[in-house]
Amino acid sequence: MAGPELSDNGEILIVRLPLAIRKRGGRKLVVSPGSQEQWQAARPRVDNTLLRAVVQAFDWKHQLDAGRFATVSELAEAIGLDRSFVGHMLRLTLLAPDLVEAILDGRQSKTMQLQPLVRGFPVVWERQRRNTC
Q: Are 32 and 52 members of one domain?
């Protein structure tokens, strides 16, 4: 890489940085050519689908705990959803508190997505952290 240089009129400093911009999942990432390591701005990556599902699951759990509904079947019927679906979504309330907090803050790992979580995850929090981080 050559050093910085001045423009023809001597007023602008030109610095060339060998970088590549790649699209990943609709986001643009900067990749340096010397490594395949990606650089991304340090801002929260809120997964709205996952966030809504977790919030909804805790709301449903609260309604069950408060006695508004006696069973998951009653809850599912009241909200017009399949009992099995509601049961699967309620599993999200079993996530480790730090994982729930990470989802709420948009700090969850890139691999943590709703569909794999709904299919099932370990109940033991330490195993959840290993499997989702």
A: no
